[in-house]
């Protein structure tokens, strides 16, 4: 399930070919999921690969224009376009719509109620957003049970043993992905490749994730850089798009030392809670252990402190926010985050993407200007 | 200090202010009685004078409220009934932003927020609110600082982002009442979740107010909300008459007390009086338009900055907005506000508001509304600032036309920021639609 343009970092295998192989060789169907977070363990327990729809980038709007106003967020727009073209239905048995924001909620109800998906079946998952911790905890568990029931309604009963295995596998994948993210560059793996590999969590079968991350971790850590060779930064925002962004960061001498993107860093628990023996409870606890994210709301002070503390700890000299255009949850947080980073002596910049096929020239210019500023501020190369 | 503030508040908000406003209202009523109807509109509503007085008094009361009584800032769809018995003065930032929009003060406020780093893509109500907070400039004089923030996600998730910014800026406690989106209808755990949160709100509100919430007082307030909603519903039902006794765009203004004074005796008095006047007009065949040639529905918030031009354009075509999903949303809660278990009634009410329901429900409701109000067409305002209302309207329009033969047009604009209203394009589109419904009618 790729965009129209080949992606420079997709040098291993294509998603479409991978999903076909999964179906043909392993009899595994697929579940397509909209961003950001959803209980993927349950889909795995049904024997299906989860493939996430972060757009995709570079899809020219066509049929979706008959469904959405011009100001719809590009992520919802591209996803709907992909659905309407039949790409999602061809690859997946079901669409999972997590309640991430108003735009994705609206997309879900259009698919379910107005036929925007051309009959593509869909289920929803609601993220609790209250600050009332006991109410939130109780609801999360109830909602997980409801979500499980909605999958069972479609795919048949989910075996407890299969769910326990899926939960354990995802624990391993989480742990390895977190290590691969936190431990930094590896020999023989460029930084864009390391991040592209990590983003394969979005579509690889969980055991393949474990194998891929494990293999990458077997490579020795890259030798420490000479001082000033690159500038450490925080990469925040929604997703590492459009294609080519990570390569340009690399070319500009910017090294991501903290990933706070919704697509990656915010979805990997820093510390996994110990298993309880009850997989449904483990799924809930894992969810509760995730760091703060604008799409799951929570307390803004906490999110600001979280980002600033990690930036300081990693010695970041800059912070780059890559925001999908018109993404309200993320845009509300930016002024507070940027002000706090400024106070901590960390420069920041915002790149807004319309999920284009390639990095637009204006975005590249802003990125270069940011790179020059952070190099100048810290005496880097 | 607090005693002095209370005394000042009591004097200005409850004695001198109301007395001055009463004199002003009498003058306005006399002026209104002398005024001839402005073609193509029917005679103006007397209730518009009462509305103005009510709104002025409400904002006047706010100017001196902080320090004199507890103050909460709250979203329009939040369970305000919990706060009223505790003596809160309640600020509705959305209503305040709408006033800024109608008085052409929204752009400056939005720009102030944008200078502080808030993107122009964000909801213009939020930007207006944050902008007035940063600049201190508001057409209502002064907005009191809150002791508590209450945000309910039943209208959008935008408010969650917006209020957590307010909580950080103002350094006051925030209570989020999170209402799961009712895709496919309500489920038991939805209600339990919302009820728990409302109970938590009650505790937080008690702490901030320094006094306990009496259950009997909560029930009484809920009863008042129910009565006002039912009265407002009766007013709206009169739009079924031919001609409709009011010009539909007025209803966007007349719903103001339903938002900001829900749960108070003032709201009940106002809607009783409005209902009496509308019935009287309906019986005498007085319409909001002198000649009603087209009957339309409106979907979404109004375009506050363009109410006048929109009224003139519609009036020219003899087109009345006989019903609007937005105004009706404030009356259909009456059935759910049943006494007995007030927390359950509040959970049920605030969980099921229009924007928290799926498009299957909205499509059904819209079709029923078109049938009941004998609508010739629907105007869908695709509002840049309201994603949950707007994303889905294209499909609704198509479904309504295909399955019920009711045509519609989508107009892209914004409820508050005039920079996002391309009036020429919108009016051209609207004129073409109206011409299609009633050829030649706009040329008169």
Summarize the structure.
The complex is a heterodimer of chains A (381) and B (444). Chain A is of the alpha/beta class.
Structural notes for this entry:
The complex is a heterodimer of chains A (381) and B (444). With 381 residues, chain A is of the alpha/beta class. Chain A is built from 14 helices and eight strands. Chain A has helices spanning 15-26, 40-45, 74-84, 87-91, 102-113, 133-155, 160-182, 191-198, 206-218, 245-251, 279-288, 300-313, 328-343, 361-378, and strands spanning 30-33, 49-52, 94-99, 122-126, 231-237, 254-261, 318-324, 347-353. The longest helix of chain A is centred in the middle third of the chain and has 23 residues, at 133-155. By secondary structure, chain B is of the alpha/beta class. Chain B is built from 18 helices and eight strands. Chain B is globular, with a radius of gyration of 21 Å. At the A-B interface, helix 5, helix 6, helix 12 and helix 13 of A face helix 6, strand 4, helix 7, helix 15 and helix 16 of B.
What is the CA-atom radius of gyration of chain B, in angstroms? 21 Å
Alpha plus pi helix count of chain A = 14
Q: Strand portion of chain A, in percent?
A: 5-15%
* Residues in β-strands, percent of chain B: 5-15%
SSE order of chain B: HHEEHHHEHEHHHHHEHEHHHEHHEH
The two chains with the largest interface, and their residue counts, are: A-B, 59 and 54 residues
Name the average pLDDT of chain A: 93
Q: Tell me, what's the shape of chain A?
A: globular
Strand adjacency order, main sheet of chain B: 2-1-3-4
Placed side by side, the strands forming the largest sheet of chain A appear as 2-1-3-4
Q: What's the β-strand tally of chain A?
A: 8
The radius of gyration computed from the alpha-carbon positions of chain A, rounded to a whole number of angstroms, is 20 Å
Distance between the termini of chain A: 39 Å
Shape of chain B: globular
